[in-house]
């Protein structure tokens, strides 16, 4: 062993055994360990993800992916179609559909969209085997914990460097969830996480294109593949996450990584309690501003005809991500702060119908955009200033609306309706579900689907066809 190799090995030995610890924790988790409120939150996450997957199944990115990849028979249903294929392909295709509208949930610790990777992976695997609702929920909770804890250890810097966490941390979440559902033991789960470390990738440069939802599909597919490969006997480094040449080292910044943070406070509280649900199909970073403006319009504090300008002070990271000042496609529009604000001002709402090529050309919206100015607030202008606020749930958006009479409407808001600090109810989710599935089902089947998700923990056998009301309970 030469000096460099010896030094690397010593560095790895000196670090906490993150990979092994997480694998062991996943295998030991039981449904009875999960509190009722976490179970209810998880059921809502499944229902919400199915809603946005059904809404996205007909979009161009989802249909093109199906055309490219559905060529193998299998048992797993491609949601929104009658097609069945292998679990890995179904997971990928359903992950793409789930994320194509950017309407899927998020998690502040993971800094991305956890369910869009985990739910497609778990449902695809459930279609292949006999699993219960309790098993499905337990697997989801395990995956969320693993993905979020790795994210916490690596800090906001991983995201700030341009990685798309839905695909990077999401791969680990989907892998842990899949491993749990397949019943892998601790060593197999450790191997699965090690395999996942060689798969996880996704870059923010592709935001605003149809490759962004591919990232979510890859997270789901990676999870299925890594777990199945480990089950088949493929091994991996036992320190693939924390090692000197492992995921954290290569994808993170050693000056800020805290390896121990990946092993602390497991289930205390469970990370599923930090799920954020979207009520508007846009990048989450503009949601606080939309809440302020929509509420102002509804309360008659604002009138579009009286508004001369709107300034929104946000973080440097928000404008790094929402980079399309004048979007040229409906996909870019979801990452255009000015467009999203202009739509909210014009309609008092933002819906899926606002992100089509025709909607993007609307002259009234384009005119309003000229009066909207997002800017970086001085208190959130650097990682050093912004990250502590973000981690504490105190990152904010400051909205200043100037009226024609010279008066100023000013509000500052952290978080948004649907975030973990202001959670949505089943009633909110039902409205979102019905909007996403409008015209797809008759009322009886639509009600049946919602009922099955509400009682997911009581179902002895689950799978996509059962949850969609295509098969009877047994």
Automatic annotation (TrEMBL):
Residues 280-450 form the MmgE/PrpD C-terminal domain. It comes from Bradyrhizobium guangdongense. Residues 22-251 form the MmgE/PrpD N-terminal domain. Belongs to the PrpD family. One of its GO terms (molecular function) is lyase activity. SUPFAM superfamilies: 2-methylcitrate dehydratase PrpD. It holds the Pfam family MmgE_PrpD_C. This is MmgE/PrpD family protein. Keywords: Plasmid. The lineage of its organism: Bacteria, Pseudomonadati, Pseudomonadota, Alphaproteobacteria, Hyphomicrobiales.
């Amino acid at each position: 062993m030469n000096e460099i190799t010896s030094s690397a090995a010593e560095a790895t030995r000196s670090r906490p055994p993150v990979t092994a610890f997480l694998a062991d924790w996943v295998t030991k988790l039981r449904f009875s360990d999960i509190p009722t409120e976490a179970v209810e939150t998880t059921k809502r996450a499944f229902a919400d993800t199915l809603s946005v997957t059904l809404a996205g199944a007909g979009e161009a990115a989802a249909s093109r992916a199906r055309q490219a990849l559905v060529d193998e028979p299998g048992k797993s249903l491609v949601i929104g179609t009658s097609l069945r294929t292998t679990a890995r392909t179904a997971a990928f295709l359903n992950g793409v559909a789930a994320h194509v509208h950017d309407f899927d949930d998020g998690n502040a610790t993971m800094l991305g969209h956890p369910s869009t990777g985990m739910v497609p992976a778990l449902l695809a695997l459930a279609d292949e085997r006999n699993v219960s609702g309790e098993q499905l929920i337990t697997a989801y909770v395990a995956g969320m914990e693993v993905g979020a804890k790795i994210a916490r250890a690596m800090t906001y810097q991983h995201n700030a460097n341009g990685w798309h966490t839905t695909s990077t941390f999401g791969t680990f979440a989907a892998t842990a969830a899949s491993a749990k559902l397949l019943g892998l033991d601790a060593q197999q789960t450790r191997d699965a996480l090690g395999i996942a470390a060689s798969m996880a990738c996704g870059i923010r440069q592709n935001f605003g294109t149809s490759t962004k939802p591919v990232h979510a599909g890859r997270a789901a597919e990676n999870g299925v593949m890594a777990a199945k490969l480990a089950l088949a006997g493929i091994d991996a480094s036992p320190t693939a996450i924390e090692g000197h040449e492992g995921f954290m080292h290569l994808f993170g910044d050693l000056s800020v990584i805290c390896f121990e943070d990946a092993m602390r406070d497991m289930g205390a509280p469970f990370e599923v309690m930090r799920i954020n649900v979207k009520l508007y199909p846009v990048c989450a970073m503009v949601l606080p501003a939309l809440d302020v403006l929509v509420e102002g319009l509804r309360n008659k504090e604002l009138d579009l005809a009286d508004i001369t300008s709107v300034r929104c002070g946000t973080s440097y990271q928000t404008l790094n991500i929402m980079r399309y000042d004048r979007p040229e496609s409906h996909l870019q529009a979801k990452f255009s702060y000015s467009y999203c604000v202009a739509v909210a001002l014009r309609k008092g709402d933002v819906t899926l119908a606002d992100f089509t090529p025709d909607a993007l050309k609307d002259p009234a919206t384009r005119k309003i955009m000229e009066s909207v100015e997002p800017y970086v607030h001085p208190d959130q202008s650097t990682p050093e200033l912004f990250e502590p606020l973000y981690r504490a749930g105190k990152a904010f958006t400051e909205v200043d609306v100037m009226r024609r009479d010279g008066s100023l409407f000013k509000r500052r808001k952290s978080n948004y309706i649907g975030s973990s600090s202001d959670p949505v109810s089943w009633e909110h989710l039902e409205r979102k579900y019905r909007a996403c599935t409008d015209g797809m089902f008759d009322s009886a089947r639509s009600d049946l689907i919602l009922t099955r998700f509400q009682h997911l923990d009581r179902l002895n056998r689950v799978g996509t066809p059962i949850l969609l009301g295509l098969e009877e309970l047994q």
